[in-house]
Design goal:
With about 240 residues, the chain is α+β, with helices and mostly antiparallel strands. It folds into two domains: about 110 residues, Translation initiation factor IF- 2, domain 3 (Rossmann fold), CATH 3.40.50; about 100 residues, Translation factors (Elongation Factor Tu (Ef-tu), domain 3, Beta Barrel). It is built from five helices and 14 strands.
Length: about 240
């Protein structure tokens, strides 16, 4: 059961936590198709002219199979509302080094699905942007099923979140992976595993023959007896 899909979205939140989901580089590429000009647009804000110049020189050297970084705007100072607004229009990533984020910026960025990242170490900023450029250059991928489980019972937490009490039948269930909910051999819903538990322990994966609790990224229509089919990304 393979289908084309390009990026995987990592989300790691415990069952008993209500938290805003961090918008990641992977999310950015899901929301924004790769620019045909092979340029990754960025806006850079830094705490000083010296560090800004160092970052500028480093990111402009990043190249992978013709894909490069394009600096739309840079400057000294905190990340502002106007930075996010410009990034939304230009499909850019906002990068901050040793700077703050002005009031309202995070809410605006979340609402408009703009990626805003801040760093205290320059090389981490450079490494992540280098990874983003590499990601742009990757070919499309297929989804390969790595396991399936049967939903035995459904728990509803006090915050309304559903936890699917399940038994893994084959392979593994793995956190952050996409899943299909299958009922009578038909896919009735799609989702992504946000968190996995064995008893009270949060785990990254659950193997064949084990019982576990599965929390999905979003609420979907599920019933006892439904199957959860889990997929990983395979690069072509």
């Amino acid at each position: 059961m393979n289908r084309i899909f390009k990026y995987i979205i990592p989300l790691i939140i415990s069952f008993n936590m209500i938290s805003s989901q961090e918008f990641t580089i992977e999310d950015f590429f899901v929301e924004n198709k790769v620019d045909p000009s092979k340029m990754l647009n960025v806006i850079i804000k830094s705490s000083s002219e010296g560090s800004l110049e160092a970052i500028r020189k480093a990111v402009l050297k990043i190249e992978e199979d013709g894909y490069r970084v394009n600096i739309l705007l840079d400057g000294v100072g905190n990340i502002s509302m106007s930075d996010v607004e410009r990034a939304q229009i230009s499909r850019a990533i906002v990068l901050g080094f040793e700077v703050g984020i002005e009031a309202g910026v995070e809410d605006l960025a979340k609402k408009n699905k703009v990626l805003v990242r801040t760093y205290d170490i320059i090389y981490k900023l450079i490494d992540e942007i280098s990874e983003a450029v590499t990601m742009m250059s990757l070919p499309e991928s297929t989804e390969e099923e790595i396991g399936n489980a049967t939903i035995k019972t459904i728990f509803v937490l006090t915050n309304g979140t559903k936890v699917l009490g399940s038994r893994v039948n084959e392979g593994i269930m793995k956190r952050d992976c996409k899943v299909d909910i299958v009922r009578k051999d038909e896919i009735v819903a799609e989702g992504k595993i946000k968190s996995l538990r064995i008893n009270k322990d949060i785990v990254n994966e659950v193997k064949n023959g084990s019982d576990c609790g599965i929390q999905l990224e979003k609420d979907v229509d599920v019933k006892e007896g439904d199957e959860v089919h889990c997929y990983k990304i395979v690069r072509q």
